[in-house]
């Protein structure tokens, strides 16, 4: 085989599928798509897939949007407009815009690529890396591209190694000893194990690598099939498994880990509980996900804010935070935070307390309020004296409360309290 003179990523385009609603996140996705949901104090969920592409050396990126895309598009325009055409870089936002037919939105994940074939062909990348825009993880796609070339696969599918019975909610790969996929099963009740590791199964991450020419042929073939649902997991991948060569790529072989990260980290933060937990996990002394890793930075829109400020120093009225992340522009005034995450521009007033909570940008916590185990949507104004997290029945009546006791609060819910 000829030695490589440059990374394969230089000849690749990353295409992020970011149209999903994420309805299990409840009211958090009433006005934004799941990839646009805030995460980690500064970022949005989509920034993980985009940062992985950039850090892997990919300089051509497209993002297909659909559901309630305004806040996502605004974030992408603000935070990802630094890629320059004169350096052979590109960044395209690709909303469903009836480019193929006047009645047609993106019908499925495959259709979201098919409708933009002309744009892809205009850049002429040799490889395509297709990504879901709604997962939290760090991964070097160059290693997956290398495996794709070395194995001669028609498609390489990114896979998680998970305990076998936990794979029932995923698309699962049945593989042989060389990780060639012999069958693809969607959400099986009895998932197939991995050869030599019968207690584990390979679950699809929604990450696919193709040669561009082959991908376009497959998309056109699929578009001509009236029975297809135009979906990669449901149509394209199963067809290639039967008629071509599909190979699994294990996340453990390309995940990026800082010294402090002992195990591969991947999260689908698709439920309120999972979203809350992944954010709160970041407050640990040594978190499972290291946002401080300068070797693999999380790129995002860097808002210009003043430093966080903590004021008052009297007994019972002391601006303090323990085991917490506090973004710029926050003022913690005579109030206490513990094991909480505050996004930019949050104000907490005197005698209030916030514990085990995720507070999105622009929120205000009124004087004497007590919040425990809450997720606050953007720009929520908590009235003085409000108590959440101490009376389960009262919480469930006023807010969206999960079985594990997390309360999601929106400004609409606060508005109803006055009536």
Automatic annotation (TrEMBL):
Associated pathway: Glycan biosynthesis; glycogen biosynthesis
Biological process terms in GO annotation: glycogen biosynthetic process
Catalyses which reaction(s): alpha-D-glucose 1-phosphate + ATP + H(+) = ADP-alpha-D-glucose + diphosphate
PANTHER family the UniProt entry points to: GLUCOSE-1-PHOSPHATE ADENYLYLTRANSFERASE (PTHR43523:SF2), GLUCOSE-1-PHOSPHATE ADENYLYLTRANSFERASE-RELATED (PTHR43523)
HAMAP family named among the record's database cross-references: GlgC
Residues with site note (Could play a key role in the communication between the regulatory and the substrate sites): 66, 105
Keyword field contains ATP-binding: yes
Role this protein plays: Involved in the biosynthesis of ADP-glucose, a building block required for the elongation reactions to produce glycogen. Catalyzes the reaction between ATP and alpha-D-glucose 1-phosphate (G1P) to produce pyrophosphate and ADP-Glc.
Name by which UniProt lists this protein: Glucose-1-phosphate adenylyltransferase
GO molecular function annotations of the record: ATP binding; glucose-1-phosphate adenylyltransferase activity
Pfam families given in the database record: Hexapep_GlmU, NTP_transferase
Keywords in alphabetical order: ATP-binding, Carbohydrate metabolism, Glycogen biosynthesis, Glycogen metabolism, Nucleotide-binding, Nucleotidyltransferase, Transferase
Family in the record: Belongs to the bacterial/plant glucose-1-phosphate adenylyltransferase family.
Quaternary state and interactors: Homotetramer.
Chain residues that bind alpha-D-glucose 1-phosphate: 106, 171, 186-187, 204
Lineage: Bacteria, Pseudomonadati, Pseudomonadota, Alphaproteobacteria, Sphingomonadales
Enzyme Commission (EC) number: 2.7.7.27
Domain Nucleotidyl transferase: from-to ranges: 15-283
Domain Glucose-1-phosphate adenylyltransferase/Bifunctional protein GlmU-like C-terminal hexapeptide: 306-409
């Amino acid at each position: 085989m000829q030695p490589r003179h440059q990374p394969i990523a230089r000849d690749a385009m990353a295409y992020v599928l970011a149209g999903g609603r994420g309805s299990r996140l409840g009211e958090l996705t009433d006005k934004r798509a799941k990839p646009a949901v805030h995460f980690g104090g500064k970022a949005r969920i989509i920034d993980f897939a985009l940062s992985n592409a950039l850090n892997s050396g990919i300089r051509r990126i497209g993002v297909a949007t659909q559901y309630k895309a305004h806040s996502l598009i605004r974030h992408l325009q603000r935070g990802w407009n630094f890629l320059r055409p004169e350096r052979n870089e590109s960044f395209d936002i690709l909303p469903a815009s009836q480019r193929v037919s006047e009645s047609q939105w993106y019908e499925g994940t495959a259709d979201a690529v098919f409708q933009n074939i002309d744009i892809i062909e205009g850049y002429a990348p040799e490889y395509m890396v297709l990504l879901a825009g709604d997962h939290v993880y760090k991964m070097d796609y160059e290693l997956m591209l290398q495996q794709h070339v070395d194995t001669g696969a028609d498609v390489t599918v990114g896979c998680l190694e998970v305990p076998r019975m936990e794979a029932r909610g995923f698309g699962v790969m049945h593989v042989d000893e060389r990780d060639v996929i012999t069958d693809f099963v969607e959400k099986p009740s009895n998932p197939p194990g991995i050869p030599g590791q019968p207690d584990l199964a390979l679950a699809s991450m929604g990450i696919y690598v193709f040669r561009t020419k082959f991908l376009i042929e497959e998309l056109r073939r699929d578009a001509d099939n009236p029975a297809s649902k135009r979906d990669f997991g449901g149509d394209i991948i199963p067809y290639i498994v039967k008629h071509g060569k599909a190979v699994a790529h294990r996340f453990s072989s390309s995940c990026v880990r800082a010294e402090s990260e002992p195990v591969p980290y991947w999260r689908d933060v698709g439920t309120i509980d999972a979203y809350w937990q992944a954010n709160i996990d970041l407050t640990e002394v040594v978190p499972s996900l290291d946002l401080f890793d300068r070797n693999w930075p999380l790129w995002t829109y860097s808002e210009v804010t003043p430093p966080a400020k903590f004021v008052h120093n009297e007994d019972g009225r002391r601006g303090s935070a323990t085991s917490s992340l506090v973004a710029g522009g926050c003022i913690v005034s005579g109030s206490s935070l513990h094991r909480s995450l505050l996004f930019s521009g949050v104000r907490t007033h005197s005698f209030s307390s916030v514990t085990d909570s995720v507070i999105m940008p622009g929120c205000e916590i009124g004087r004497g309020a007590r919040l425990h185990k809450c997720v606050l949507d953007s720009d929520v104004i908590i009235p003085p004296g409000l108590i959440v997290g101490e009376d389960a029945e009262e919480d469930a009546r006023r807010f969206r409360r999960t079985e594990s006791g997390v309360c999601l609060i929106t400004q609409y819910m606060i508005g109803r309290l006055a009536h």
